[in-house]
Amino acid sequence: MQLVEDHQQVGFIEYSSRVVHAEGYIMIHCLWVSAVGKGYGTQLLQKCIDDAKQRGKKGVAVLTNDQTSWTPSKALFLQHQFQLVATAPFDFELLVYPFSEVVELPYFPENWHERLTGYHSLTILRSFQCPFVEVATENILAAASKLDISVDLVEIQSRDELMEKSPTPYGIFSVIYKGQLISFHRLTVHSVYKKLQTLLEEPV
What is the DSSP letter of 107? Predict the structure, then answer.
C-alpha cells in the first residue's frame, strides 16, 4: 500500500508473514516514509487498520527490534495504542492492536534454542521478501570465502517452512554457524569475517 503526495511516493506499508502465530491478524512486514514529522507513518498505519477491519480481521500486529532498521520502529505503534504482548531472543518484540478485548492475541513459538542447535555448518536461510536480502547474502558469502568456509544456502519456499525452520521471529534472513546466530540482517563483510573468525577459534 503506497502513500503518494504531489505524484511522488512518500511512504509505503507492506503485509507479510513473520515467525509469529497470528491467525486472523494482518502482520505488518515493512513501513517506510520519506520524511518524519509529516504524519506519513500515521496515515499509512490508519489505512492498514481500516483495511484489516474491512477484511474482518482480529487486529493488526507488527514485529519490532530496536537493534536494527530492518524492522519498523516501535515508537509509532505505541503512540497509536498498540500493546507489547510478547518478547523473543535477540531483542524482538511483538506489538498488537486487537479490535476486541476477547480475541486471542498473537504469540511467538518457544523453541528458538532448539532451532539454532540444529545447524552446525555455516547456513543461510532466506526468503526474498526484501530487496536487501541479496546484498546481505553476498556479504556472508564473501566473508566465508576469505576464511575458506563452505556455505549451505536454504531457500524458504512457504509460510509453513518459515514457521518451522527460522531461528528468529524475523524469518526471511538468518545466518547460523555452529549452533549460534550470526545475524538476521545485513552486515558488512568485515563484521561477518570477525564473527566467523571468532567462532573458528573457539575449541570444539
Answer: B
